[in-house]
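Re: that chain you flagged

S.,

Sorry for the slow reply, it's been a week of failed gels. I finally had a moment to sit down with the sequence you sent. For the record, here it is as I used it:
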Amino acid sequence: MDFLLFIQAAVMGIVEGITEFLPISSTGHLILASELMNFWTKEKSDVFVVAIQVGAIAAVIYEYWGKLWGAATGLVTGEKKGRHLGISLILASIPIMLVGLTFGQTVKGLLFNDISVAIGLIVGGLIIWWVEKNPRQIHAEEVDNITIKEAIYIGLIQVLALIPGTSRSGATIIGAMMLGVSRKAATEFSFFLGIPVIVGAGLLDLYQSYHVFTTEQDWMVLAFGTLVSFVSALVLIRVLVAYVAKRDFMVFAWYRIVSGLIILLFALTGWKLW
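Prediction finished late last night. Pasting the structure tokens below so you have them in one place:
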């Protein structure tokens, strides 16, 4: 048994759990971490990067089970708040599912590289900086206050997350803030919106590429990475909700810009960090 592979999978799981819900691009960080550690073959690593995101989203389901169950049952019982949230999440999830099913593999093949990640980080950082410097008047303090129309707009913005380095969380949180949604409500809606998208993408990619895992150890490594992702994401969710209640996202804007420039410099010059 290759214990180094399990250690690398744990590192990848921690990176996923920490970055999935921050506006800094989990996929971009996973691609870079994979290349830095020379983790697995590229074919296995690419599938692993998508599949372990299911562990992070499972942490959201665990943490917000009550509200999510209310949204699911509200679609049947007609309970006003639950039904509204349920419909909002369904409509907001449709755009990225349609685009992802149509172009997901093409995007994965063309843009899963250092330069795409760097550009996505820099552009996203500049957008976050601009939004924080030009705040909108808040009219939706809680996630239940987000209108159906706004939910659809946020869903359309989420399509940008197919580009590595963009960040699904960053796109949806900042997009919601541009519409007048509070940081806390935007963050929670982004958590919920990730459930159908990430679970769907993870299971679909695993179904289409399960043949790359040829041994029992391969599946054990994937399961271990997913478990580590779940635990680290659960911790991050609680920390992030407390953070956004008091602070803005400027630190993430600067982090994205600086890290993107560094990655771009090394990618274009051929220098190595290791």
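What I noticed first: The two ends are 26 Å apart (CA to CA).

Talk soon,
D.
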